[in-house]
Design a protein that fits this description.
The chain is of the alpha+beta class. It has one helix and five strands. The protein is globular, with a radius of gyration of 16 Å. GO terms for molecular function: ATP binding. InterPro entries: DUF3107 (IPR021456). This is ATP-binding protein.
Length: 77
């Protein structure tokens, strides 16, 4: 799932993919913002993303559906 976190006073958002569910990611972000804690998530490459909850301007949590890439079996009518 793709995640984008906008940080206040920073021009570029933090964008990464994670194996966590949308509920887990949004719950971690909401908890950090509410309590002034840090969001600590791990991306699909094993890197840790740590952002202070007080610095988060916005978060976009992508869908969990996978999108096939390439050409499928094209049936002729």
């Amino acid at each position: 799932m793709d995640v984008e976190i906008g940080i206040q006073n920073v021009a570029r958002p933090v964008t990464f993919a994670t194996d966590k569910s949308a509920d887990e990611v949004s719950g971690a972000i909401a908890e950090a913002v509410k309590n002034g804690a840090v969001v600590d998530l791990t991306d699909t490459k094993g890197r840790r993303i740590v952002v202070p909850g007080s610095a988060i301007g916005y978060a976009i949590v992508g869908s969990e559906t996978s999108h096939p890439v390439g050409f499928g079996n094209l049936a002729e009518n």
